[in-house]
């Protein structure tokens, strides 16, 4: 059985997100093979209620790709503060979106936000809360900087995802495979309710239909939680995956969605 480190390993996560290269690989992969052609980013943005002049904080903004081609939407913000722990990611986001009067780029940690109380009308955190070491502290900080009538939008994945199926195929089980379930569609509501009165769950229906197995190999090699397979020859990885293909294609489940939190916990 192959050995794999915990996907909660902070060093591995830091390495995974040090630059935008691996993230771009993963985003492009999902764009190409997801069966829901609306696109996760388009769906995510469609859920936001953005009014003219709003002050918005984005945590873990990554490459800023979710805002590409959305100039009209960006113009509505009174201020959009884009933050990340990675200087490399922020540099890429700035390159992608450019210098704009109403956009600010800042290094920031959700566990210790450098903003005043009640500073923002809306806070966004996409696919990042499961990486936060002290999730309750992070949620508490979000509630602190969010105005009383503001909304917190966070996307995450479920506990029945394609990574679990792939781990099974590569015999990554038991102590050798510890999927990151720190904040999921299953337990996220309970975590958010520690600081918010109302939490709404919205599911994004999707799956993967992969027609080029080489692309799946590249995707797996970009994941911190699948680092163990980097020691396996590429032809062996390809052979294992082909063993699960039907007519040259691989179908895998996806379980993604959004949680929207509002109100103050009394």
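^ Assign residues to that structure.
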């Amino acid at each position: 059985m192959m050995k794999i480190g915990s996907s909660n390993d902070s060093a591995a996560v830091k390495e995974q997100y040090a630059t935008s290269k691996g993230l771009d690989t993963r985003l492009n992969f999902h764009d190409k093979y997801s069966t829901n052609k609306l696109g996760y980013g388009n769906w995510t943005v469609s859920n936001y209620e953005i009014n003219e002049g709003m002050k918005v904080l984005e945590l873990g903004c990554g490459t800023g790709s979710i805002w590409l081609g959305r100039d009209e939407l960006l113009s509505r913000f009174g201020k959009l503060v884009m933050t990340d722990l990675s200087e490399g990611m922020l540099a890429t986001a700035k390159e992608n979106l450019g210098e704009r009067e109403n956009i600010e780029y800042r290094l920031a940690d959700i566990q210790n936000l450098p903003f005043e109380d009640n500073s923002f009308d809306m806070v966004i955190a996409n696919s990042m809360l499961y990486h936060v070491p002290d999730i309750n502290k992070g949620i508490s900080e979000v509630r602190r900087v969010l105005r009383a009538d503001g909304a917190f939008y966070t996307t995450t994945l479920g506990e029945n995802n394609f990574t679990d199926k792939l781990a099974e195929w590569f015999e990554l089980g038991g102590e050798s495979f510890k999927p990151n379930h720190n904040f999921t569609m299953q337990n996220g509501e309970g975590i958010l309710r520690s600081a918010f009165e109302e939490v709404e769950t919205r599911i994004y229906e999707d799956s993967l239909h992969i027609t080029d197995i080489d692309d799946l190999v590249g995707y797996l090699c970009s994941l911190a939680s699948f680092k163990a397979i980097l020691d396996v020859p590429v032809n062996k990885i390809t052979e294992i995956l082909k063993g699960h293909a039907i007519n040259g294609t691989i179908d895998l489940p996806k379980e993604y969605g959004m949680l929207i939190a509002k109100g103050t916990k009394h």
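The chain has one domain: 10-262.
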